[in-house]
Every structure is written in structure tokens, then in C-alpha cells.
Design goal:
Elements: E1 3-9, H1 20-28, E2 31-36, H2 41-55, E3 62-67, H3 79-103, E4 109-114, H4 124-132, E5 137-142, H5 147-155, E6 166-170, H6 171-177, E7 184-188, E8 206-211, E9 219-224, H7 225-243, E10 248-253
Helix pairs in contact: 3-4
The structure holds S-adenosylmethionine.
């Protein structure tokens, strides 16, 4: 029997970020599968549970955690080892999910609640594609509000210059990739504020930075990179000290 899977972008933790379409899809789901990453990520688990409790109108939904396979020390790996490490981790995850889905009643609809939008630095769609190679699946993806959009909205900026490009990348790849003709460069997954390495040569870049955007703990800093990088470092550290973790995203905009 075909299993229905819904991959639902839920924005950044607040019920008001969840679109009407996402709420409809959440109400179709019988079992939400959530990777259990332990430690601080249990806060994210609690957030998902709270969203379901607030937005789902039936009482049949369940949230089931699936132990996340061990993932190696990414920071010690080169690019090839990193890709191989991620591939092995995805394969282990896929097997765990296939086992759980096969054990569900045949008509059950399975849901994945994805932070932000499933299209940005999230492996759920790829993982469900792999699940679909092993069992018969009908998959839908529901867009969510991404940290990228909330960053731009909170700073009240368009991301692109008129007719210009927007490049989205990770902290890991920023220095290797950055070129002025990329236009605005949006950086996610940067635990080390790699943009500091651009200060010496490109201090005039404009940076729009945000931690915990769209959340009660939101912190924003904007300005000339050379002028505000130390302030961003301080604010980032303060947020991390307060919460025990920090998620941040930034846009680097070349001067006109
Ligand atoms: C695994 S990616 C997931 C992105 C997510 N799918 C999205 O659309 O926002 C995690 C990265 O997204 C960014 N991020 C997610 N939530 C954020 C938030 N509330 N504030 C700032 N950055 C956030 C950070 O760069 C973080 O390292």
C-alpha cells in the first residue's frame, strides 16, 4: 500500500509562522517522526510538540522520536570526507525510518516537521526520496518560512540589488566561494563567523546579521562589516551564553 508522507515547513518555532497550508497538512498526519538528537535539541522537540498541540484539531496524532545515528566530527574532515560522512549518516537514518514506517498501520499518514523551509539546508526531502526507493510513497512538501526570509524582513531589506543575484551558502564554503559578482551572499550554518576572514580585504561589505530570528530571543546587528564584526561576535556570544546554543544567519551585501 502507498504510504503518504508530508514534509511540512513550520517556520521558526512560533505557531504564527506556520502557514494555513501547513496547518492543513499537519491535521492530515497520524504519526510525526522526529529525529532524537539528544541534549539541547530536545528543546526543538518540545517546540514541535507544542506546535502540534496548538495547531492540530484531532487527538489521533502522535509524535514519535527516532534515535539519530551517530555523526562524525565534521570540523575535522576535508570536503570529500565531509560528503562521505553525511552520506553514511543519511543512509543510516533512511534505514531507521523505513523500519519504523513499515511497522505503522498501512493507511497511516507520516509527517516530518521541518524547521524553516525544507528547501534550505535540510536533508528531509533527500531522505524521503531515498525512503521512496525502498517503499511505495506518495510525498508532498509544504513550504515554510525560512530564517533567510525572516532575516530580510526583520532588517527591512530586499536581499537582491535590483535585478541582481542572491547566493546562499554555508560558513564552511564562504571564503572559498565569495566573489563580488555573486551579489548578496546569505550564509547559514556558520558556527565561527567566517565572514571575519573577509574583513581585511572587504571591510566595506554591508552585513545584516541575526540570531534566533523570529524568536523571542531575536538579536539583530547591521552595518559595515569592518565596523560591526566585533559587536556581532559579542552579541552572538551573549545569546549563546544565555540559551546554551545559538542559531544565526547573515547576508553580506556589496556596497553600491
Ligand atoms: C540546518 S539549517 C536549516 C535552515 C532552515 N531549513 C530554514 O529554512 O531556515 C540551520 C541553519 O539555519 C539558520 N537558522 C535556522 N533558524 C534560525 C533562526 N531562528 N535564526 C537565525 N538563523 C537560523 C542558521 O544558519 C542555522 O545554522
Amino acid at each position: 500500500m502507498t504510504r503518504k508522507i508530508r514534509i511540512i515547513g513550520v517556520g521558526l518555532g512560533a505557531p504564527r509562522h506556520v502557514t494555513g497550508e501547513a496547518v492543513e497538512a499537519m491535521n492530515e498526519v497520524d504519526v510525526f517522526l522526529v529525529p532524537d538528537k539528544g541534549e539541547r535539541k530536545s528543546e526543538l522537540l518540545d517546540l514541535r510538540r507544542a506546535l502540534c498541540a496548538e495547531l492540530i484539531e484531532n487527538d489521533r496524532w502522535q509524535l514519535r522520536t527516532i534515535a539519530d545515528p551517530e555523526r562524525g566530527p565534521d570540523s575535522e574532515r576535508d570536503a570529500r570526507q565531509y560528503r562521505e560522512g553525511v552520506a553514511a549518516w543519511h543512509a543510516a537514518r533512511v534505514s531507521a525510518y523505513v523500519d519504523v514506517i513499515k511497522a505503522l498501520p498501512p493507511g497511516a499518514t507520516v509527517g516530518f516537521l521541518v524547521w524553516g523551509d525544507p528547501a534550505f539546508y535540510d536533508s528531509t526531502i533527500r531522505m524521503v526520496d531515498r525512503i521512496a526507493e525502498r517503499i511505495d510513497v506518495e510525498m508532498r512538501v509544504i513550504a515554510g518560512i525560512s530564517a533567510i526570509q525572516v532575516l530580510a524582513a526583520e532588517h527591512r531589506i530586499p536581499l537582491n540589488a535590483i535585478g541582481g543575484p542572491v547566493h546562499i551558502t554555508t560558513g564552511r564554503a564562504l571564503i572559498e566561494q565569495w566573489r563580488r559578482d555573486l551579489g548578496t551572499v546569505v550564509v547559514m550554518l556558520d558556527g565561527h563567523l567566517r565572514c571575519r576572514e573577509l574583513v581585511a580585504e572587504h571591510p566595506d561589505l554591508q552585513i545584516y546579521w541575526g540570531a534566533c530570528v523570529g524568536m523571542p530571543q531575536q538579536a539583530l546587528v547591521a552595518g559595515r562589516l569592518g565596523d560591526v564584526i566585533d559587536e556581532i561576535t559579542r552579541v552572538r556570544r551573549r545569546v549563546r551564553d544565555d540559551l546554551g546554543w545559538v542559531m544565526d544567519v547573515y547576508a553580506l551585501v556589496p556596497p553600491e
